[in-house]
Give the backbone structure.
Amino acid sequence: MVEPLLPPKRKNPLKRTRLPVSPPDIRSRQSHLLTAAAAEGRFGMPGCLECGAVHYPARDACPNCLSSRIGLIACSDRGTLAEATAVEVSNNVYFRERSPWRVGLVTLDAGPGVVAHLHADCVVRGRVKLAWTLDRSGNAVAFATPETPSANMEDDRQIREMTLDPKHRRVLITDGRTALGQAVAKALSAAGAAIVFVGIADPWKPFAGQDRLAAIAGVQIMPLDITDTESVRELADEIGGRVDIVVNTAEHIRPGGLLDRNGVNLAREELDSGYLGLLRLAQAFGPAMKFRGADGVNSACAWVNVFSIYAQMPWPAYGAYSAAQAAMLGASMSLRGELRSGGVRVVHIFTGPTEDEWFQPLPPPKVAHGQIANAVVDALRRGIEEAWVGDVAQDFRERLQQNAKALEREVGQ
Amino acid sequence: MSGQLAELVASIATGSVRVVDLTFTLSPEFPALVLPVEFGQCQPFRIEEVSRYDPRGPAWYWNNISMSEHCGTHYDAPIHWVTGRDLPHNSVDTVPVESFIAPACVIDCAADAAADADFVLKVEHITAWEAQHGRIPAKSWVLLRTDWSKRDYAGYANLREDGAHTPGPSPEAMRFLVDERGILGFGVETIGTDAGQAHHFAPPYPAHHFLHGAGRYGLQCLCNLDQLPPKGAVIFGAPLKIKQGSGSPLRVLALVER
Amino acid sequence: MAYAKLPRKGYEGVVLAAPVTIAYRRYSTQSAHGWIGRALRGLVEAAGITRQDIDGFSVSSFTLFPDTAIGLTQHFGLSPRWLDHIPMGGASGVLGLRRAARAVQAGDASIVACVAGDTNYVDSFRKSLSSFSRFAQDAVYPYGSGGPNASFALIASNYMRTYGAERADFGKLAVAQRANALKTPHALMKKPLSLDDYLAARMIADPIALFDCVMPCAGAEAFLVMHEETAKSLNLPYVHLLGAIERHNAHADDPIQHRGGWTVDIDELYAQAGIRPDQLSFVQTYDDYPVISLMQLEDLGLCKKGEAKDFVRANSFTFDGTCPHNTSGGQLSVGQAGCAGGYLGMVEAIRQLTDSALGGQVKDARYGIVSGFGMITYDRGLASAAAILGRA
């Protein structure tokens, strides 16, 4: 059993901060089949799309029939831990700093043997559950946990290197004026975040839920207007060194396509709070987070951006808004690349239309803000990089994968 | 240099004429006008550093700024309101420059506004003032002192669920000042020349309606009105020369004799 | 589909001569090219031939990048009519020999220089680990980056669990090899090793401890392959190649490796050589870890599967004891010079069978077996090979 993780002691300001280094990050193109699975928390094994045989490590031809049609094949994630060892001496700085590091060979029920990172409660010849998860280099690795969950499982030293668990971490939510921001604050507080900084723009403007927000355990209201470079920088000056997780909940939803918008003022506002807002936040908070990617139990670890599904495929009725979302998504993907070397993962949450005043005329199903908040916490706990919240988003994602052109036409109708 | 101007400059130099700054500092966090969300919004003041003695510009510091014409301490031209849309010289670039220098009458309603955020300036307040200080001269600014500029931002905007609650003139008072007294313009400490609840007045937004309909001007977000005498100060305030501009942030200065 | 499978042909007439070792160094600033060049010069001097007489050239190296064997011909001024490049680690020696032997038999080459050499810069071991194979890159190195130590830890602990071998059994081989190495001038390990030292050593990846691991170093090993008549006319001492096998990626369905590819072909090897295991005068295993030596003792037919621990307990393994094993000290005590590690046993066997051991000499050595093993690209060594040599 893993001892429950205690809140970290206060940092000794005289001690140098350990800099993040990456575990080995070179992978073959084919093995990124697993990175794609890990990014969404799916399981499957590389396998042959002709004969169905699964194999590992990922190959470019099936070792059973030599077909080159290789893909991810869904199969059981259960297996037996054949052997285990603890690496005391490593050639890689990341593992040297974290030795001993427990690894083992898992024989999957589906056949292949997989070298995997091990949860402390996995016993040799015992049953395990295997998952693809992203390591601090951002690539997929196999992680075995006991088949029957054990106590405080998430607090395991090695599993916490893979996940982005908010427990004992300090979170910044960028916009607490909205129902979404407030729901996320509540959920992260409940998930054990040590501090939930909540940014509020134009504090002279009252907003709904103000008192309830302030009453949430651990919440600290901070002045933050992500459309104001100076405001973002001032907050970063104050708390930038203590933010372990950023959840950017900024939203600026307005209907209208390109033709029925008279001028670009509204579009500029959308870009200002979406794309440019992300840029400001990234410039102000990114460098310090990247620096603190290996800073102990509450190291900086995650940057969450909440997107509309229309970032992926514009909805002409909300065309300008969709474009602003797409711009932000593009920036966020670059941010992902830039933060990766610091061990900070960028998480994308995609949601369909929410229970928001600006989507009021739309028919159900709509996504409740609490659902999105739970998806944020779930993504952090599982360490996934991409989550699609609600039925509309799930359906959208499937259609996007099946035939993007069809989806383009359908969304336009 | 000799004559009146030399005298004025000398008076300023010796301090016998004091210059009072009636302007708020333009800053991003200063409250801006809030309209119902369906309408286009007033873009708040924003400042982006271009360089600061750094690789972007090693020996110089400068910024890009952006804002609405109606941001911070600002000026309303007649063209701002539908009632003044067809008047001649109605935009900031064509307003006669002589009007940028004019005397001011200051009506002190600070106590009333402190007692009631929705205080409305009525004709009787004006006539009471005139009883004490004499008739308001034509072509002068009338400035409504409420000490609103001394409030914190939340108190300044004073937003509630049914909108802003800030003092302003009644329709009758505005008609009186424009028609009966021929004032140059009306200046206030609050975000608008009209009261926060003026959309319920008849006509709605009477200050905008009557002032601009008659080709007169507005000044908003003034401060330091408590440093002006009721009568005798001279206002210097020239908006930016924006082509077809409806208004402009500006520096408003008052000259006050000791 | 049924098809005719021709019987193995023997290696009649093929001999090995001119064993050359370029003394190992822990680290070297010289490139692999330099080490291989020195070995070539050693061959020419030992055989009393000229560079131009070498008309076959087989190279094994991991650190030649960006060169391969062909670049070396120009580098060294060689013009061979037969060329081979075999970067297959611990199996390089036997694999190089098998191919060279067939070239000599066919008349494609008269004198084949088989050379293995690698350098070891201060950071080259770490770099080679991270880029050893695609599978290692994808599926092993990101897991603790323990290198082969971690992979063999899993194999060793499974072997111990399955067959009841103990660390002391592994230790016995390591201790005997150290005793052998103390006689070998170029062995990097100079201090005696006791079983207590072995058992008390720092753990590297449980159950692999410090003295289970080889020390990467720079070095080169080489020998000549030719026809017996050629050797006679050059007046060179030589040994006969009696048989040789190789087998790759065998037993792929074993969840963890507990046997190598030898088991598939071992009977044919002894049949080809015309001897029985009990006639062997010594054994040179590929000893990157003692557990692999135990596995080879079984798979090469010296004892039954799972009984190596008893075999180990019953023998001494020193050059002057019973079942002389890794008589120069093996890689564990001499050092592991990359692909030259796959040549070490072969060169030592030639010396033992020509009574020219640099260290301890096995008395009356008549037959010896040399085993090669290597290329752990994912979870197991893929290549296994063995050759039986006989005194002329």
